[in-house]
């Protein structure tokens, strides 16, 4: 969605549901920001430089914090949608935000405006594009790790990505339409705008694919097994550490609070093999393995998936570790 549309919706819904009045000052752009919003309430007036985003997630927090520091704290986020856990972080950091549905947070001197009265607006989806369906997301995950495979025959791509043969041309067509496939000649392509593609993939993975992979949430029968999780004998070729556990194994920097397992084992096998007890508030989360081609990391999922898991938490220590993983394992590939 165009930035102008996002700010227009936000101001329209803000004024519709509150006594606040707002005006978009497109001509007042400070150091590459989108513009300035002027907000007034009775005799109080406030102008704030604005950064406009489509979707703001917890994974964007560190980036926004750097921007806020550059502008000495004088900046407001305006977004079509803001994740609930990201909103909490923004409030804790005292960063003003305005959502397209009119939800607002501003704490300026003696003024405090905090409105949380509306559900997020529905996402606008591109009709007919198959690249970011659940099936497409599986294929994109493969291409982000093994880019050269994008030029293999359709049948081979279907086999190594676990997708139906008929879906492959639609997925590739969708990537072309979105500007993520660059033709080098009539038969050879390469990925482009890979960082943007990864960000799109993270959204789709968190919203659509990952929830469908969830096997269950558990705790250990013996609490000390959580502390000694590295000694847990994961079944080779069947289960892999992801999330915070995978990050600790890659960096030796993060002490996990949640253990994430991606697996081919069934729920009953997990309970039996690792002495787990189902618990909706447990600290062991299990998901089905959704890829077919592994990298050479033994019992850990790829650095890419660990990075995505961490970036989706909104937890500061996880975000800092994700940056380490990005610079060490992913930067040269993306």
From TrEMBL:
Pfam families in alphabetical order: AbiEi_2
Domain of life: Bacteria
Name assigned to this protein: Transcriptional regulator, AbiEi antitoxin, Type IV TA system
């Amino acid at each position: 969605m165009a930035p102008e549309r996002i700010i227009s919706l936000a101001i329209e819904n803000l004024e519709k549901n509150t006594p606040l009045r707002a005006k978009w000052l497109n001509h007042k752009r400070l150091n590459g920001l989108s513009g300035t919003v002027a907000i007034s309430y009775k005799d109080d007036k406030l102008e704030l430089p604005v950064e406009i985003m489509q979707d703001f997630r917890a994974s964007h927090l560190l980036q926004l914090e750097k921007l806020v520091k550059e502008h000495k704290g004088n900046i407001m986020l305006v977004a079509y949608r803001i994740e609930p856990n990201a909103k909490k972080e923004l409030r804790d950091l005292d960063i003003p935000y305005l959502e397209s549905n009119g939800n607002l947070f501003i704490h300026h001197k003696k003024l405090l405006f905090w409105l949380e009265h509306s559900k997020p607006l529905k996402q606008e989806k591109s009709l007919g594009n198959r690249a970011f369906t659940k099936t497409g997301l599986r294929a994109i995950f493969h291409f982000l790790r093994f880019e050269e495979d994008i030029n293999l025959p359709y049948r081979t791509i279907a086999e190594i990505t676990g997708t139906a043969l008929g879906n492959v041309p639609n997925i590739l067509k969708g990537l072309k339409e979105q500007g993520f496939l660059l033709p080098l000649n009539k038969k050879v392509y390469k990925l482009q705008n890979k960082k943007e593609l990864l960000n799109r993939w993270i959204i789709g993975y968190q919203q659509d694919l990952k929830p469908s992979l969830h096997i269950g949430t558990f705790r250990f029968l013996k609490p000390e097994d959580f502390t000694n999780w590295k000694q847990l004998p994961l079944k080779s070729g069947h289960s892999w550490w992801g999330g915070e556990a995978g990050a600790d194994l890659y960096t030796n920097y993060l002490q996990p609070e949640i253990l994430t397992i991606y697996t081919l084992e069934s729920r009953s096998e997990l309970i039996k093999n690792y002495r787990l007890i189902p618990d909706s508030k447990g600290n062991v989360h299990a998901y089905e393995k959704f890829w077919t081609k592994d990298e050479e990391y033994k019992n850990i999922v790829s650095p890419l998936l660990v990075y995505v898991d961490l970036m989706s938490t909104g937890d500061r220590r996880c975000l800092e570790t994700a940056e380490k993983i990005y610079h060490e394992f992913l930067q040269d590939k993306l």
